[in-house]
């Protein structure tokens, strides 16, 4: 955008806006404003939608103590912006990339020959990073606990199995639920006592918020 354009935000990041609310006021040449209109609106609509969706999920788990996490399933090139929007909506960030935490998944476990060797190899490479292990059943949960995972992801567990997992872990490590999470299920999942629920839909299935730009000459 033209650096001469002045912008005055009318709302703070994360503040709710009712339909018809003026979000910001711009002052500059009409040509500059119209040229940048579509790109600016696309960006703002996506991030507003991300924050709005996050706020809905956070409200659905209110009172449970469970935190809502995002994932790395973000729009290419906009990961940091969407991660910020999640925080504006009251959610929390999972890892940003492959550099700030380790998530040992099914293919890593297969390649390493099991959960224990996969965890051991990851610890040798990056002993300073948080290490999370994804498990698909209670037997794998036991293995991940024994291997010393810092956090354990319960992948596609149903509600009764989540409750068993919470009892089995007994608070030794935080548990995270992933898979089949939507606004209709997240509350029930949270009430099982898990610590985190990660929701890919926060950043990949959002519907753009309806925003528009209107010129006023003067």
Automatic annotation (TrEMBL):
Annotated pathway: Alkaloid biosynthesis; nicotine biosynthesis; Cofactor biosynthesis; NAD(+) biosynthesis; nicotinate D-ribonucleotide from quinolinate: step 1/1
GO biological process, one term: quinolinate catabolic process
Keywords of this entry: Glycosyltransferase, Pyridine nucleotide biosynthesis, Transferase
Record Pfam families: QRPTase_C, QRPTase_N
EC code(s) of this entry: 2.4.2.19
All residue ranges annotated as the Quinolinate phosphoribosyl transferase C-terminal domain in the record: 51-214
Domain Quinolinate phosphoribosyl transferase N-terminal: residue ranges: 5-48
CDD domains: QPRTase
Cellular component terms (Gene Ontology): cytoplasm
Similarity section: Belongs to the NadC/ModD family.
Role according to the record: Involved in the biosynthesis of pyridine alkaloid natural products, leading mainly to the production of anabasine, anatabine, nicotine and nornicotine, effective deterrents against herbivores with antiparasitic and pesticide properties (neurotoxins); nornicotine serves as the precursor in the synthesis of the carcinogen compound N'-nitrosonornicotine (NNN). Involved in the catabolism of quinolinic acid (QA).
Protein name: nicotinate-nucleotide diphosphorylase (carboxylating)
Protein's organism: Dorcoceras hygrometricum
